[in-house]
Amino acid sequence: METLANLECFVRSAEVLSFSEAARRLSLTPAAVSRNVAALERNLGVRLFQRSTRRLALTEAGERFLAGIGDKLDGLQAVIADVTNECGEPAGCLKVSMPFTLGTRYILPLLPGFRARYPAIRIDWHLDNRPVDLIAEGFDAAVGGGFELANSIVARRLAPAHLIAVAAPAYMANRAAPHTPGDLGTLDGIALRFGSTGRLRQWTMRDAAGREEAVSLRPEIILNDPVPAMEAALMGLGVALLAVPDVLPHLSNGLLVRLLPGWFVDAGAISLYHAIPTLTPRKTQMFINFITDHFRAEKLAERFRAI
Q1: Taking CA 254 as the corner, what is the angle to CA 249 and CA 260, rounded to the nearest 5 degrees?
Q2: Is the CB of residue 17 less than 8 Å from the CB of residue 56?
């Protein structure tokens, strides 16, 4: 049995004869569309497209298959939408993954309002600093970064993921402030280790002018998670590179100070990951709307920027 995602990727690609344009319309990456079409061809045992570096064309089998599908795909999607909206009120278990600190400080406080608006949705939220496999682990959505956009998963950008250098005021009291990322090597570093490979994370910082410089952090303390790294920085044990949303409260109350205010690490984006819109149940869509509306209203994208 073919997945709806594979069929939709084929139909939309056949309509425009372009994986890239189909990906744009489906809010997927071209690679994801190509993989889904390839999976469909593999399962059917026929080639549906002739591919070249310049153009995409339907094979004879592809033309017959597209004609056979006709408007059945749109009809099936309409039936799914009708079933998911039949009860009127979003319901079911909403399983979501999110980073521990970001989730605790910025998303969990939204739970009372979300529950009041959608009382029939049961909450199953996992606060963990790891990229989960949404499909294999049965998650409806995830907030964070570094997820692979595979198996019909899309990413909706919420805010930039910027890291900055911070330390406790007591630690910096009798030390010279660094002026460049290279100067961080003169201070005690609180480093993070990749859990999957065991290697230490290496960062490159940039400034507003676009200049880049490798961080020469001297690892005196090595930890495997940003949460204990921030606690170590709060205890005055050294300098850590941490995400802006994680350290904002401590910068405001003076428990941490920012070093190198003109420099930051660009670690990509904080995104909301979920299935393509045609496969998103109503409970998940309500969560997506709730979170994106909150980020927009509170201007969190602007607040999470390093400069």
Answers
A1: 90
A2: yes
Type of residue numbered 10: F
Convert the pLDDT of each residue in 254-307 to its tens digit. Answer: 999 999 999 999 999 999 998 877 667 889 999 999 999 999 999 999 999 999
Q: Check: CB of residue 285 under 8 Å from CB of residue 121.
A: no
Which of 234-272 are b and which e, b meaning 16 or more Cβ less than 10 Å from the residue's Cβ?
bebbbbbbbbbbbbeebeeeebbbebbeebbbebebbbb
Confidence check: pLDDT of 148 > 90: no
User: Whole-prediction pTM value?
Assistant: 0.72
Q: Is the pLDDT of residue 69 over 60?
A: yes
* Contact criterion met (CB below 8 Å) for 168 and 255: yes
Angle between helices 60-69 and 4-16 (to 10 degrees): 110
- Give the helix/strand (H/E) hosting 174: none
CB 40 within 8 A of CB 7: yes
First to last CA, the chain: 50
Which residues, in sequence order, are bridge partners of residue 222?
Answer: 191
Q: What is the dihedral of CA 146, 141, 74, 41, to 10 degrees?
A: 40
Helix (H) or strand (E) segment spanning residue 41: helix 30-44
Domains in the chain with CATH codes: 4-84 (1.10.10.10), 92-307 (3.40.190.290)
